Every structure is written in C-alpha cells, then in structure tokens.
Amino acid sequence: MDVLTRKLESFCPFDQQDRDLLASVVAESWEIGPDQDIIQEGETPEDVHLITSGFACRYKLLADGSRQIFAFLVPGDFCDLHVFILNQMDHSIGTLSRCTVVNIPRDRVIRLTEHPAIARALWWVTLVDEGTLREWLVNMGRRQAPERLGHFLCEILTRLNVVGLVTDNAFDFPVTQSELGDTMGLSAVHINRALQTLRSQNLIAFSRGRLTGLDLERLLAFSGFESNYLHLEPYRLKHQRPKLA
Amino acid sequence: MDVLTRKLESFCPFDQQDRDLLASVVAESWEIGPDQDIIQEGETPEDVHLITSGFACRYKLLADGSRQIFAFLVPGDFCDLHVFILNQMDHSIGTLSRCTVVNIPRDRVIRLTEHPAIARALWWVTLVDEGTLREWLVNMGRRQAPERLGHFLCEILTRLNVVGLVTDNAFDFPVTQSELGDTMGLSAVHINRALQTLRSQNLIAFSRGRLTGLDLERLLAFSGFESNYLHLEPYRLKHQRPKLA
DNA sequence: CGACTAGTTGAGTAAGCTCAAAGCCCGTGG
DNA sequence: CCACGGGCTTTGAGCTTACTCAACTAGTCG
Q1: pLDDT higher than 70, residue A241
Q2: N or C: which end of chain A has fewer CB within 10 A?
Q3: How far is CA B38 from each of CA A5, A133, B48, B89, rounded to the nearest angstrom?
Q4: What's the CA B196/C1' C11 distance, rounded, in angstroms?
Q5: C chain positions with any atom within 7 Å of a protein CB
Q6: How many inter-chain contacts (A to B, CB under 8 Å) are there?
Q7: Which pLDDT belongs to residue A84?
C-alpha cells in the first residue's frame, strides 16, 4: 500500500473505492536531489505537493542568515494543502535528502474532498500538523538539549512507523547534525553533545544516516514523549505495533 | 461591529446576510474570571468557544510542573474550532484576565459553514493560527530574549489592532511577567530584564497592565517582525491603519 | 496599616554558543 | 590499491545568555 493511504488510514479506514482513488493520485511522481527547494516563501503553488520518499522540511531564513526548521516532512506528508485559502507561502519547503514528490493538481484535490471519508482525513492531517507545531513549541521552550532531541526522535520514529518505514526500531535518517541544530534551535556542536548524551545512556545509536532506538521505553520516558498530540486513532494503535503509541 | 465579524472581515468582506448571521452567533455570552480553565486537556468540548473580551491562552503543563503557553487568544479568536475532527483536546485553554466567552453549539457552526464566504473565513483563521505557531517557533529558536519579546508584542499589537482594541499604539494588556515567561520560554526574571531593554531603547512603555508602542517603526525593525504570516489581506490593510501591516 | 502580589535587583551558576583544530568517512582519480 | 580532498563529526577552551535563589521595593486591597 502507498504511504499516503497508510498514513490517512491511521486516522480512519477507507472503503475500496476511496483507496483506489487515493492510489491513483500518487501515480505520477518526480525526483529532486538533496538541499533543493520544493517551494519558496512568497510563491503561490499551482499544485499540491506530496512527499512519497525521502525527508524534507519547512523552514524560514532570517535576516542574519540563520535558518529555523519547524517541520519535518516524511513520506505521506503534504507540503501545501493550505494553498486553496492562503494566496502566498509564508515559508519555504526544502529537501534534506533526495526525495520523491507527487504533484496533485488543485482540481484533483477538490475532487478528493468530495469523498467524505477522505475529506475528513485531509482535515485531520491539517489539525495534526498544527498539534505537532504546538508540541514543538513546548519542546523548544521547556526542554533542554538532550531531552529535546530525544523527543524529536521519538516523534520521527512514531511517524515513520505509521508509514511502515521502521524495522526493529531502526530507520534511515540521512540528516546532518547541522540540520538537526536548525530544527532544535541549537548549534550543531551542541547537537553533537546532546547526541553523545543519548548514546552514552544507550538510548539510541546513530551513524551513517541510520538511527536505531535501543530502548524505546526508556527513550520515551527520558524525553517526556506522549504521542497523544499525533492523534493516532485507536484503529491504528490496535492493529500496528502499539509499543510506539 | 462585533469582534468576530471584524476579525473575519480582515480576510474578506461579507454581504449583509453573512454579517447578520455572524452577529447572531455572538448574542449569548458568559463571563469567566482570570486564571481559570475554559477547556482542559483530554476533554471533548460540546460547543465551540469564542473569546469576545479579555485574554486567554493555549498551554500545556509538563511533568516537572512548568507551563508552556503557545498561543495567545484575543477577542475574536476561537478556542476549539477543530473539535469536529479531533476527539480530544491535546492541550488546555485558560484565561489570563477576566474573559467574555461565547459558546456556539456544533450544529450552529455547521450551519455557518454552509455559507461559502464564512466557511472560507473559518478555514482562513485555522491556517493563520498554524502560520502563527510556525512564526513562534522561529521566534523561540532563533531570537534572543529582547527581540523575542519585542516580536511577540508586535504580533499582539497587530492582532488587537485588527479587532479595534488599539488606540494611539496603546492597549490594555493585563498579563504578568511570569505569564510572559511561560509564553516566551524564559524565566520571569529574564522577562523583566528584556522588558527593561525594550524600555531603555524607548521602544515600549508597559505598566499597570497597559502597553504602549513608543516607536513602532523601530520596534518592528528591532524585533525582525514581518506581518506576512498573519495573512492580513490587502482589503484590510488598505482600509485600516496600514502602518501596522 | 498590614498583607499580598507583582516587579526589580544582585550574585553566583549552568546551559549553550563560537571559534578553531583535529579526526573520520567516503568518493574520486591517479 | 592508495593518495587526496571535502564534508561531516568530534573535541577543547573561553565566552555569553539565561537561570536560580534570595532579598528588597512598589503598588493594591481590605
């Protein structure tokens, strides 16, 4: 099953007609290399973009040249579902690794929303994105470096698990420490030290672009991670690896 | 005109029928004192709540007892428009000052959304809330205390101006430094020092619950504030105090 | 006037930053 | 197969920002 359907079904199950429709949407895709912009601040994209492989991020550049990343986009995530209302992007979206992207024309999305189950699921992803931003704000405001980084990794692990990209608590994560720094509001050097803290406690292993959770139970507790903000519904939690819930 | 209509019309103008409908919604309201919860994490509210006077905030409490505030709710703001999709609140909403609140039953909101202009406007407020969270994340991650606080004050000034609560760059702001600390991810003591920095540069005056912007031009520049994330449409900007845009 | 809350100040501490120098990994070309 | 180069990671040292704790001051309300 494709990543989009997998993700949306973590909210509610679809009937076969809806599944076929969703599958048809992700038919045509294109590739983009690492460190490229998919959309830039100020643009008004024609199509809605969907990531089907690789990692991308939402970010803004500041006047002093620093960058803040405030969302990670993983396979199954939409870039710009809000384009129907807001006329301009207020942030940019760039790739972190090589990515596969699907362009969905506006009218195609509108046709999708005529199916009530799909419309609700799209509404749901928007609200979960918002809940995730709130949790990130808590993370930035109230947790120090090692816990903050741990919390972020718990989230990524949970989200990748939903789309089937986690095996034995490990996943490909081709992201530099500098990019993690831009994400967590920390310097790259300090990310390095926070990673060492997590490693020394045997919570994670991370090298050569692959991350392994060594003791999820303790990692979740250490980071104060509660997955409720991701609003994974009981449906999914009961049927798929509840240990990450 | 009521604050809700004022706010929604900063996105697009309505016809008289829509205005009457909106005005009828805010007919009945109730009062709640300061430091009270309007909704708590885990609840499933029956009605949608709208603030029509006073200040409230979205927040989460952490295990160590600390609090992170990640949204300020000002008159015209909805508390829980997302309740139709997400079954549980993933955060709480509490008052900062005495507030006036309107309860709008679910089916009333559904009837509102049958009017296309209003439905689009409600969609818009949701997306602006999300854009605001993104900007807050940038603020937390990349700006230090005085600029961070200044940026936040610029935003509040802009948003209160939209609903007509700013006169001569001044507005009532009955918020403690401790609450500002919980908002900015800083200690109350450090908020005090950041305020002194802003005051010493003659950017603001703030005492007895009233805040005055002394030199908006310089305050915006100092804080790196760009209002684009609030997505105020040209309609409003041309007709109301463009200096804050 | 007294008590309470919020704001202010000072001093010492801790978290995180910058800069700079190694070290490691991996791809490329001889 | 090895040498080289480039990007990323790691380490150390000194500095800055922000924190905590504690004392003190200024309003406010009974």
Answers
A1: no
A2: N
A3: 36, 21, 11, 12
A4: 19
A5: 6-11, 15-20, 25-26
A6: 105
A7: 83
Residue range B178-196: mean pLDDT, rounded = 98
CA of A137 vs chain B CAs: smallest distance (Å): 6
Other CB atoms within a 10 A radius of the CB of residue B33 amount to 10
Would you tell me how many other CB atoms lie within 10 Å of the CB of residue A94?
Answer: 21
d(CA B34, CA B174): 10
Q: How many Cα atoms within 13 Å fall on the side-chain side of residue A189?
A: 0
Which residues in A have their CB inside 8 Å of a CB on B?
58, 60, 62-63, 66, 68, 70-71, 82, 84-88, 90-91, 120, 123-124, 126-127, 129-131, 133-138, 140-142, 184-185, 224, 228-229, 231
Torsion angles phi and psi, residue A116, rounded to 5: -55, -40
What is the tens place of the pLDDT at every residue in B156-166?
A: 999 999 999 99
Angle between helices B216-223 and B145-162 (to 10 degrees): 130
3-class DSSP state of A27: coil
- The pLDDT confidence band at residue B234, using thresholds 50, 70 and 90, is low
How does residue A27 score in pLDDT terms, banded at 50, 70 and 90?
A: confident
